[in-house]
Amino acid sequence: MTKLSLPRLTFAHLPTPVEPLPRLSSVLGGPQLWIKRDDQTGLAFGGNKARKLEFLLAEAKAHGARTLITRGAVQSNHCRQTAAAAAQHGFGCILVLAGHPPEHATGNVLLDMLLGAEIVWAEDRDAGQLLQKTFDDAWSDGRRPYLVPYGGSSPTGAAAYAEALSELMAQDVPIDRIVFASSSGGTQAGLVAGARIHGFDAHIQGISVDTPSQQLCESVAALANEVGSLLGNPLELTASDIDVNDGYLGGGYAVIGDLERNAIGLFARNEGILLDPVYTGRAAGGMIDMIEKGEINAEERVLFWHTGGTPALFAFADQLR
Length: 321
What we know:
Number of helices: 12
Number of domains: 2
Largest sheet: 6 strands, mixed
Distance between the termini: 46 Å
Shape: globular
Low-confidence stretches: none
Helix content: 40-55%
Order of helices and strands: EHEHEHEHEHEHEHEHEHHEHH
Radius of gyration: 19 Å
Mean pLDDT: 97
Strand content: 15-25%
CATH topology of the largest domain: Rossmann fold
CATH class of the largest domain: Alpha Beta
Oligomer: single chain
Strand order of the largest sheet: 1-2-10-7-8-9
């Protein structure tokens, strides 16, 4: 099993554990459930972005960058971990966050501030255009910015999850299906590319948190092909090779409903594991619903890949009680 040859900084806490979920499995009447704990990767409460940032920061250093710039939602886990990586490695950090500043800083916004990031609030402006202006201004000011892609989902960032798939295989847990939250597509693209490269034949099941299935399948396939090319293993994946379930979008991105509340409660009360309300709560809720409907059968061995995000629990406290 080959290791990635891309430039890399090593700061994530790896390998992350794979743990059985016997009580939750029993409550749901099967299947056998495991969890991959990428909520324990380090960088200010952990999450999947730590893996991607190991490669992205190496790329930034190779370009002579001194400032990291990226964007996300108000409670962006990606932004929080980017700010933590920047602090750890001596970069400046500017975050362009959608919407208006909250009345009280909590969750990831509070952590962004504690980590020393400069926050630019988009308010009523287009966040993409504001990101480019922020980058251009930083360049003009001599700050040598590096633009960290949204969600870390460039070929370089996504390649980290091809390596993560290799890590899982080395842990030798018999798995029929992997379930996880899919949004910007980098995690899913890396897992799919890694599975093809390493001959891993378990089903890779993304649960979309914010994007229609066809659109996300197309972008994941394209990105997975770019990951393959980057790693010297050309792939020819199409949207039909990607599985995304978009049946759990609910009221929209970061709109919390009974699905998320139920999943968070079941994981917390039966396994002592905290999910987040936006990503893993929605993905776990989808997985539970698929089990209850028989779409995931009781004989399967299923791994839930926990991608982190738990600081957002505090920002949504009023909706989770």
